[in-house]
Each structure stands twice: as structure tokens, then as C-alpha cells.
Amino acid sequence: MDLGSLETLIAALSSRDDAEVRGAIDLLAAEGRARLIPALILYHPSRPVVLRALELFETSGRSDFVPVADRLLDHADPELRAAALRARSAAMPDEALLRKGLDDPSPVVRATALVGLVAGGWLPKSTGLDELLRTAEAQAALARAIRRQPSPAFEDALLALAEAPSPEVQALAAEAMGAVKSPRFFPALLSMLGTREARRAARTAFLEHGEDALRFLDEALGDWSLPHEIRRHLPRTISRFAPAPAAAVLLRHLLPEPAGMVRFRMIRGLGRIAADHPDVRLDAAVLNEATARTLEASFRLMHWRSVLEHGAAEEPHRATRGHELLTTLLRDKEVDAVERLFRLLGLQYRGEDLRQIHRGLRNTNPKVRSGSRELLENLLDPPLREAVLALVDEAPAELRLAQAMAYYRAPLLDYESVLVALLEQSSESVQSLAAYHVGELGLTSLKGRLEDIELRRTGFFVSRVIERALRLLAGPPEGLVHAR
How far apart are CA 118 and CA 113, in angstroms? Predict the structure, then answer.
């Protein structure tokens, strides 16, 4: 920065416009010239200006501002008192001033003073923490104070704050954990991924821990017993680490992963890495196998839906509300599978815009659809080409399944066989609708299947649907659509 620019910024510090003053302060800080900000800026009437200046002075290594900062220790605003105490303690630690802060009426100032005393070695690490853990306001103040004055002495306090009922306090605890850094925090941060308000802070804290955190998340992703509301957020968290090791973790778990939502988010995370870091190589063998499995799953869904639709056409009593919901769900899952497929293709053909091709195939304009189809024909080699085209074409299911034989050989299935297969799916929504449909059709031949599922530890909603279906099957035939 030249002399003229510096003079302009220094002059801006005297502006009547608070935003201009803040901008000048931030620019000086960004240029590494924070030492040029005069200590007298602390007399500025704007609260945000003074707080920002104190924040910079706290880490500047200078002490010329201390006499002015001490005047703020009696300010009416507790945030200013706390910031002044924190900044002057960083420059010239004073045990007496910190102990005086313990008697301040504001929990923000008391937390700042306590953290300063513990960090300075003047108090045992557990002293006074119980009082600051009683209310959400005090907990938040303590977490903020620890983040600004991180020390290993506060590990236990942060673990206690991580269990606070307030999501805001949890988020602040996660921010402080990122500043203190300890592997002891990993389980608590993992739990916070399931809380929307604390998730971003938890992810950032994991990143601050570096390779150790990535190894922990790698193990967590392989733990299928973890709650789904936590596991589904692991892929995105992992994708934010260094691109090459993060991609390796996601690829290693992609094929064995049993949960469709988690697999989809792994693919999305890999897509983010591939887009931001074109030089990162991805394991082609894993992607090829994932593509083949996705094609197989897509055509299996198509086959099941086709059997159900033909079955309802042949025997109209099957065309119930449950039938409609079930076939709609299978169609939606086909759409999701096709999206996964094109994301996987995008990872393998990284020079091509597969996302745009996918959009074109769904366009209502026949010319646009035809153009996207032609691009696929030229891009893909057999047998992948025929299978992908069959998946996106609008021909009858029988013709499309015939083109998919390299990936899915459609077995002979009747209506009840498809319902049996759907009852065995891991998806609770599929299981529930299949059980509901069995009950409304009165298919007593499948009663044993429902009883077997009921004996397993299924989700609450699935259990209730199966109980209802079994009551229908055990009751009189009146009210049933069809009994056998």
C-alpha cells in the first residue's frame, strides 16, 4: 500500500460515518497495518468501532492503548467492559483487575475475567465454572470468552457446554473447541452435526483439528450404528477437508455404504471436490462399480413398478390408494437414482457437462431432449450407452429392460413377489406402503412376512403400519378390497 493510500485510510478514521471508519480499520488490518490505528480510536462514540478496535488491539502485540482501554472498564456497556478487559489483559495481564472483574454484575465480564485468571495460572481451572454454567446467558458468555482466550485448561468446561440444551450455546462451544483443539472434543462435535444450529460451527471446528479429525470422521462414516441424522451430514463435513484425502475417504466408503441418502451425499461431496479441484484423481474402478450398481438399482425399481402397474391393469381391484402411493414412490426413487447416475457419470467424464445434459433430458422441448440424447450417444461406450439411454427414454418398460441386460436381468415376478421384495427393503417409506397395500388387499398369504418384519426392530412408523395391516388380515373380510 502506497503512502497516499495510507494517508487516505488514516484520514477516514476521523470520518463522521461509522461505516467508513469501520471500513478503514478493516482495510488497515487486512494490509497488516493495524499498528497504525491510533489508541485514541477507543474514544470514538460508535460501539461497533470501539469493539472492532479492541479486537485488533488484543492480538496486535502493542500496549500503548492500555491506559485508554482501562477507562472503558467502567463503561455502562458490559460488552465494551469485557472487550477492554480482554484486550488489556492480552497486552499487560493484571491479576488484580481480573479479580475485580469477577465481581462485575454482567456474566459476560465475569466469564472474561475468570477465563483470564485461569489462562494466566492465577486460578485452578475448575474455580467459578459452576456459577457460569447455570444459565444460558452465562454459558454463552463463557464459551465466547474461551474462544477468545483458548487454553487446554477449559477442555472439561467446553465438554459440559456441548451438552447444554441451548443450540446457540452448543454452537458457541463448538467455535471455542475449534480454538482450543483437543481430540477429546470429537465425540461432542460429532453429536452436534445432528443439530442444525450448531452444525456449521461443528464442521468448522473439525476442520481446525486437521488430519486427526479426518481420521475420526473416517471411522465414524464406517460406523453404521450411528443415528442417521448424524451420518447423513458426515459426507459434506468430510468433503471440506484437504481434497485428495477427503476424496479417498468418501470413495472408500461409497460402495459398502448401506444408506441411500448417505451414498447420495458422498457422491455430491465428491462432485464438489471434483469441481473445485480438477487435479484430484478419483478411483475409476470404484466409480465404475458404483455406476453399475446404480443402473442395476434403477432398472430394478422400473421393473417392480412395471409389474405393479400391469397387475393393477389386469385386476382392477388392486388399483387402490395404497397401490397409487407405492407406484408413485417407486417412480420418485427412479428419478433420484437417475440423478445419482448422472452425478457419477459427471465424476468419470469430468470434461463434460453431464449436469446440463441431465437437465436437457428432462426438458419439455423435444428438440432439447433430442440434443441431450445425442450428446449421450456420442459420449458413452457400449454397454453403458444402451443402458443409460434405456433409462432416460420414454419407451415401454419391457423394451427398456431388454436394453439393460448388461446391468440387470429382469426375473419373472408376479404381483405378490414384488410386494415381498418391497417389504424386505431397508427404506421405511417403501416398507410402510408395501405393508399398507398388503393389508388393504387382504393378502393373507403374506401375513407371515409381516409378522417376521414385526419381530425385527423396525422404526416406530413402520411398526404401526404393520400392526394395522395384521389387524386387517386377522379380521373379517368385510372392508377388505380383496382377500385370499
Answer: 9
Q: What integer pLDDT is reported at residue 359 of this predicted model? A: 93
Nearest to 449 by CA among 423, 482, 417, 412: 423
Phi (first) and psi of residue 196, to 5 degrees: -55, -45
3-state SS of 411-468?
A: CCCCHHHHHHHHHCCCCHHHHHHHHHHHHHHCCHHHHHHHHHHHHCCCCHHHHHHHHH
Write the single-letter amino acid at 470: L
What are the counts of helices (DSSP H) followed by strands (DSSP E) for the chain? 28, 0
- Which residue stretches of the chain have pLDDT < 50? 478-479, 483-484
3-state secondary structure of 65: coil
DSSP secondary structure code for residue 31 in this structure: T
Cβ atoms of 141 and 83 within 8 Å: the answer is: no
Look at residue 481 in the predicted model and tell me its pLDDT. 53
- Tell me if 221 sits within 8 A of 256, measured CB to CB: no
d(CA 239, CA 246): 5
Task: State the Cα–Cα distance between residues 248 and 282, nearest whole angstrom.
Answer: 8
Q: How many other CB atoms sit within 10 Å of the CB of residue 130?
A: 9
Give the list of residues 6+ apart from residue 221 with CB closer than 8 angstroms, or none.
231, 234, 235, 238, 249, 253, 257, 262
Q: Exposure string (b/e) for 213-234, b if CB count within 10 Å is 16 or more? A: bbebbbebbeeeebeeebbbbb
List pLDDT tens digits, range 291-327. Answer: 999 999 999 999 999 999 999 999 999 999 999 999 9
pTM of the model: 0.85
Tell me if 387 sits within 8 A of 402, measured CB to CB: no
**Residue 385 pLDDT:** 96
In whole angstroms, give the CA distance from residue 429 to residue 426: 9
Yes or no: say if 412 and 418 are a contact pair by the CB < 8 Å rule. Answer: no
Q: Is 2 left (phi over 0), alpha (psi -120 to 50) or beta?
A: beta
Report the distance separating Cα 92 and Cα 244, nearest Å.
44
The radius of gyration computed from the CA coordinates of the chain, to the nearest angstrom, equals 31
